[in-house]
Design brief:
This protein has one domain: Purple Acid Phosphatase, chain A, domain 2. Helix content is about 35%, strand content about 10%. The protein is built from six helices and seven strands.
């Protein structure tokens, strides 16, 4: 059997970002001939900040500086908005709640220097030793109710949807490490909301979710009910790309 083509998350982000901008510029929209992209998005992911020694490819202490560099560049590029794709922070090798919350605060103070709307997705590491409620109170999603973990908004001629897959297959929300990161799903009530949300919009949509809806790396990184989510997105006929 032919081996599947495997992409890293970083490579996937680069490829999909280019595709989305191409679609947004008019190549994928009937009758649209824009001279420039109608939407420019700054994407950043997996900053994993913590005050701890490096482990593998994670250089935790360097994340603040890297995020600052990213935000500065996005300000220079004057992108329309920024999206952090999840795993904003990490934790100590021996987690302490107060220190973990400080990591969120420190990162958000850097992210807040972006001169425009900014948004967060929840990753599994964002709730490994704190709750969704704690995380949600410390970050801002511009124009979105505090604490909302999935939501949508319009930006110009495009509809943006943010999903939350930090749930176990039994429907229980991730909370302070009560989960195995490989057990990830989007619950039925959120799928019902998604179907209704896409049904209401007349705009092409971009969808954002931390966990994969396709086995780009391996099945353990994939949302367990990904097929149902993909079917819903495809049936809408409105989704340009998923990040």
């Amino acid at each position: 059997m032919k081996q599947p083509w495997i992409l890293s998350r970083k490579t996937f982000m680069k490829a999909t970002a280019q595709s989305a901008l191409l679609l947004a510029s008019g190549a994928g929209m009937t009758g649209c001939r824009a001279s420039r992209p109608i939407l420019r998005i700054g994407l950043v992911s997996d900053t994993h900040y913590a005050d701890r020694e490096p482990a593998g490819t994670r250089f935790y202490r360097e994340s603040l500086g890297k995020l600052k560099e990213c935000v500065d560049r996005m300000n220079e590029e004057r992108v329309d908005f920024m999206v952090h794709l999840g795993d904003f922070k990490d934790q100590d090798s021996e987690p302490e709640e107060a220190r973990t919350l400080r990591y969120v605060k420190d990162l958000e103070s850097v992210y807040a220097k972006f001169n425009g709307p900014r948004y967060h997705l929840l990753g599994n590491h964002d709730v490994d030793s704190i709750s969704k409620e704690q995380f949600g109170k410390m970050v801002e999603n511009t124009g979105i109710e505090t604490g909302a973990t999935y939501y949508s908004f319009d930006r110009g001629r495009v509809h943006i949807v943010v999903l939350d897959a930090t749930f176990r297959q039994d429907g229980v929300a991730y909370d302070k490490g009560n989960f195995d990161w490989k057990d990830t799903a989007i619950p039925s009530d959120q799928l019902a909301w998604l179907k209704e949300d896409l049904g209401k919009t007349d705009k092409p949509a971009l969808v954002f979710v931390h966990q994969l809806l396709d086995p780009m790396q391996s099945e353990q990184h994939q949302v367990k009910n990904a097929a149902a989510v993909r079917d819903l997105l495809e049936a809408s006929g409105k989704v340009l790309a998923v990040f």
